[in-house]
Specification:
CATH topology of the domain at 140-284 in chain B: Rossmann fold
Distance between the termini of chain B: 207 Å
Order of helices and strands of chain A: HHH
Number of strands of chain A: 0
Structural class of chain B: alpha/beta
Structural class of chain A: mainly alpha
Number of strands of chain B: 14
Number of helices of chain A: 3
Oligomer: heterodimer
Radius of gyration of chain A: 16 Å
Largest interface: A-B, 32 and 29 residues
Helix content of chain A: over 70%
Shape of chain A: elongated
Helix content of chain B: 40-55%
Strand content of chain A: under 5%
Largest sheet of chain A: none
Radius of gyration of chain B: 59 Å
Distance between the termini of chain A: 20 Å
CATH architecture of the domain at 140-284 in chain B: 3-Layer(aba) Sandwich
Number of helices of chain B: 11
Chain lengths: 65, 454
């Protein structure tokens, strides 16, 4: 279960890597569009993670209480 | 000698001699092993002296603080030391020896020196810290990387504690609308059960550790300021070994307990802990926004650069191509003109040249052609600017060939007094080629005559 879980840390690391790759100046326009699409998807997921409740985690915490 | 005393007479005798021989008040240091307040406001204690280094009791005595003194001593001590009197605490007290015929010996405490206890507590704290340091574990919890978003929180507190309610209010009511998940692991946060309770809560959390980003230990502030329960080696050691960051908010303004010191972070109050967690989320979101802006800027810059590059390449490429094409065209046409005119002349003149010279001429022609060919390929590789030099040098080469052609011109040969003999347009070099009655033509400088061989 933990495998497929979205990790904020990992997402941020991946976005940072994409940014570094772009900054290195060795990215052509075709690759750029693929990477930017990936990064914006990660950013969207990060923002979602901060603000919307995940029922799965809620259920786990209910069991713990 | 047969005089007998009653028990009470003996006790009075003992009391009188004690008071006579020990009439003063004495400052005594001792450790509290038991303490309780009576319903009528008196405070009863048991004091001991232990052998240093072990727990064996070297001396033991009962003590009392009468209610008229206790009200003063209690307030004074708590205000000064930030702690209430409790078992395990070392104190320095001013005592008078009392002897009661029923209850026996006890010490009546008249005054207390909080500074002594503060010093003792600090020393104990230092000893614990030193031990943790010697074991190399003191900073282990601090060294854990703090999660980007401390969203799933294990709380060690007491449900009834005001601090817990405040904490939850600040956390779930955060104005940014961040989501938190929390689970309470109840434990006593004061009294002799503190150690066992907190360690047990940490153990329960450790059993579900994959679900938690952070542990908080919180306790309401207010009048309850006993920190010394947290100057505890076992609690501290457990925290240093804990796999996720531990944050404390156990409500003490002035001092840090050992628990605070080994924790990843210590804050003064439960609400401060909640605000800190919200701030972490805010920082994470700001970072995401920042990095996403950076990403957009960078990408736009790359696209812009690529566009500019394409435009400028297009602008450079077209005129450059035009210049090159027109350069080639000029070159080709002038080469053609030269070749044609030179060739025409050559062909024309060749008719007049003796057969022996023809080989040389045609090889010369081939060489011209070859030269021109290599010049053309040279042009195609060179810039337009260079092509002018090529044209010039090629012109010189052609002029050179023209000169050689002039020397070979048959007119010059005839001028030197030679004649050219031919038959049916074919130049005759050897006399054996001719027989009787052959009609030949002889060309002189100024004309041609026909004659017949005899």
């Amino acid at each position: 279960m933990a495998k497929k879980e979205f990790s904020f840390n990992q997402a941020v690391r991946e976005i940072e890597k994409i940014l570094r790759d772009i900054e290195s100046g060795e990215m052509d326009v075709d690759k750029l569009s693929v990477e930017v699409r990936r990064a914006s998807e990660l950013i969207r997921q990060c923002q979602k993670k901060l603000r919307s409740t995940e029922e799965e985690i809620n259920a786990i915490f209910k069991d713990l209480a | 000698m047969n005089e007998m005393l009653t028990l009470s007479e003996l006790q009075l005798l003992i009391r009188d001699s004690l008071y006579l021989s020990l009439p003063d008040m004495y400052w005594v240091k001792a450790e509290i092993t038991e303490i309780r307040e009576n319903y009528n406001g008196h405070c009863y204690l048991e004091l001991v002296e232990k052998n240093s280094g072990d727990t064996n009791v070297k001396a033991r005595v009962r003590a009392v603080i009468w209610n008229n003194r206790y009200r003063f001593i209690k307030t004074y001590f708590e205000n000064s030391a930030g702690e209430s009197l409790k078992a395990g605490m070392k104190i320095l007290v001013k005592v008078r020896i009392e002897y009661h015929e029923i209850y026996g010996l006890s010490l009546a405490i008249n005054d207390i020196d909080p500074a002594f206890t503060i010093g003792e507590m600090a020393m104990k704290r230092q000893q614990i810290l030193k031990k943790l340091e010697d074991e190399g574990v003191l900073n282990m919890n601090k060294e854990i990387e703090f999660p980007f978003i401390p969203q799933r929180i294990a709380i060690i507190s007491s449900r009834s504690a005001a601090g817990y309610t405040d904490f939850m209010k600040h956390l779930s009511g955060n104005s940014n609308g961040y989501v938190f998940y929390s689970s309470l692991f109840e434990a006593p946060l004061q009294g002799s059960d503190t150690e066992r309770g907190i360690i047990s809560a940490l153990e329960r959390i450790a059993g579900h550790i994959e679900n938690f980003d952070v542990v908080v230990i919180i306790r309401g502030g207010g009048s309850q300021t006993d920190l010394s329960w947290f100057d505890n080696y076992n609690i501290a050691y457990f925290i240093t070994q804990f796999p996720v960051p531990v944050i404390t908010g156990i409500g003490h303004e002035k001092d840090l307990s050992v628990t605070d010191i080994v924790a990843h972070r210590s804050l003064k109050t439960p609400t401060a802990v909640a605000d800190f967690l919200v701030e972490c989320m805010l920082n994470a979101e700001n970072y995401i926004i920042e990095i996403s802006n950076e990403l957009t800027d960078r990408s736009l810059k790359i696209i812009e650069q690529t566009k500019e590059w394409m435009i400028s390449a297009k602008m450079k490429l077209i005129p450059l191509a035009r210049i090159m094409i027109s350069g080639f065209r000029e070159e080709l046409s002038s080469t053609l003109v030269n070749m044609i005119s030179t060739g025409k002349e050559y062909v024309h003149r060749a008719k007049l040249i003796p057969e022996s010279q023809k080989g040389r001429l045609s090889s010369g022609m081939r060489s011209i052609i070859n030269n021109s060919g290599s010049l053309i390929s040279g042009f195609s590789q060179s810039t337009v600017k260079n092509s002018k030099n090529f044209i010039l040098s090629r012109g010189k080469t052609l002029a050179g060939y023209e000169n050689s052609l002039k020397i070979l011109d048959p007119v010059n040969v005839l001028n030197r007094g030679y004649t050219i003999t031919s038959m049916k347009g074919k130049i005759i070099k050897d006399s054996v080629e001719l027989k009787e009655d052959d009609q030949i033509e002889t060309r002189f400088r100024d004309g041609t005559i026909k004659s017949r061989v005899v």
